[in-house]
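Repro:
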Amino acid sequence: MAQESTSNLSREDFDAGPTSYDKIEDNLYLGNLTAATDVKWLRKNKISHILTVDSCPLPRQIQELPDITLKYIQITDMPREDILTYFENSYEFIDHAIKSNGNVLVHCYFGVSRSATLVIAYIMKKYELTFIDAYDIVKNKRRFVGPNPGFLAQLKLYEDMGFTIDTRNIKFKLYRLQIAADKVRKAKILPSNYIDLIKPDPALETVHPEPTVYRCAKCRRIVASASNILPHSPHERQIWRHVSTKKNKKNQDTDNIIVRTINDNTDNNKQSDICKKIYFIEPLAWMPDILNHVDGKLNCPKCEAKLGAFSWISGCQCPCGSKIAPAFYLIPSKVDWSNAVQNVLVTV
């Protein structure tokens, strides 16, 4: 191990308080930045793996310690930060550490929100527990655990997806689009790490093309497939909302966490409840302007006929009263529905 002097560390914003940690279960600890930089504590508890989820990585002195495997996830403690997409990688890191008979410390700055979220996600997946049950387990071990409202909503979505990242899930698609919209609002351009949101041009699909498609009413060019449609119901607002209330029971405050995602019609509502006054769709590769403009028109890539519009920031309100943001939509009168794909390449 490193020399004793390595325990005397400095960092410009180092003010996370004294070493704070709690053992969540065998081989798994949840703590703060001070614990992750306390060499004596790391040695005493035989920490072999450290998962850091913070705005900056651990000091060089810790990074250079032998026999400790590090993983760094750069995230700030903001409700609109995307922590959900890191759940799978963090689970694999923790699981591998424990299965190799190591001890793993998961930490952020204070060990309250970001790192707690990853540990709760780990417990959910490992034991197939609901978000509420996993939350209670972790909070009973570390009493001041408190993920921010956005992270709580993402944990609930993780439960809804069956403890995995299901990229075909409508709720996940909408969630990712909303996160990307926040980035576009700030940078006025879609960041490169969100390019995966731009789906392939359905007119170019030659391997197992979908049978149900939407074509330009003027030139018959395919502009969307059924899987690209983001269904909505009348008067729906697709916004992530978190409500937290406290009740006093046996002289103790207990958190009652209620996470409401007002876009969960897509799995349970009947087909007749789906509005067809506007077709909201995923962003597609034939829409070049969406990469460097915050809003604009959507024209057929073949005949230039206007098909709809898009807006990363303002979104769109359907005549049915539903408000969706960001929004990429086709006007039903401008496209025709077809249930058979014929000569796909001819449509280009």
